[in-house]
Amino acid sequence: MPAHYPATIDASGEKAVEAAREGGKPLIDSRIKVTRAIDSIRLCVECLRNGAGEVIPMELNAASAGKQAFTMPEPIGVVVAVSAFNHPLNLIAYQVGPVVAAGCPVIFKPAEDTPLSCFRLDSILREAGLPAAWCQALVTNNRETATRLVTNPRVGFFSFIGSARGGWMLRSRLVPGTRCVLEHGGSAPVIVAEDANIDAVVPKLLKGGFYHAGQVCVSVQRVFVQRVFVHRAIAQDLAARLSEGARQLRIGDPTL
Question: Is 44 annotated in the active site?
Answer without folding.
Answer: no
